[in-house]
TrEMBL record:
Protein name: ArsR family transcriptional regulator
Gene Ontology process terms (BP): response to arsenic-containing substance
Organism: Salinisphaera orenii MK-B5
Coiled-coil region(s): none
Pfam families: LMWPc (PF01451)
Length: 176
């Protein structure tokens, strides 16, 4: 199999693996005609996907029934799929000592504010989840359009770092 035919595994990390990293996994896996497969995990996984995250994914008609929070150690086991990319999406995991990922994947920080920490009325909380979703979607779209097979590791690192530094341009959609 050539590099242009292979599937690239992408792991999204956040502390509880209940919203932002789940968004990453679900969004990446919802793309058709791509050579990317998403996974997610957390350092302190919750018991279930946050209800507002699950509701939002369902409203966007993105399958999430099979997704659940899991500890990042799952992806260090011998039988785990090798990751090509690992993206932390919260500042907590950025400050933690992550496991050593087999295969030395390209890593980057794609920080997105934790919507589960937003306080206030239901509308404000839902808006926070939409904002996180749209920020992740914008990054996933840029990432999915990279010519991964034709970029060397240094250029790939530069590209995924730049994606992580981008500001969300979808605030209007999140405010809708």
């Amino acid at each position: 199999m050539s590099d242009t035919d292979r599937t690239y595994n992408v792991l999204f990390l956040c502390r509880h693996n209940s919203a932002r990293s789940i968004f990453g996994e679900a969004l990446l896996n919802s793309l058709s005609q791509t050579s990317l497969r998403g996974f997610s995990a957390g350092s302190e996984p919750g018991e279930h996907i946050h209800p507002l995250a699950a509701e939002l994914l369902a409203s966007m008609q993105i399958a999430a029934d099979a997704l659940y929070p899991k500890h990042w150690d799952v992806f260090t086991r011998d039988d785990a799929p090798a990751m090509d990319f690992v993206f932390s999406v919260c500042d907590v995991t950025l400050g933690q000592t992550c496991p050593t990922w087999p295969g030395h994947p390209v890593t980057a920080h794609w920080g997105i504010d934790d919507p589960s920490q937003v306080e206030g009325d239901e509308a404000k909380r839902r808006q926070a989840f939409r904002k996180a979703f749209y920020a992740m979607r914008a990054r996933i779209q840029l990432f999915a359009n990279l010519p991964i097979a034709s970029l060397d590791r240094i250029r790939l690192q530069s590209e995924v770092d730049a994606i992580g530094r981008m500001e969300s341009t979808d605030d209007a959609e999140a405010d809708a």
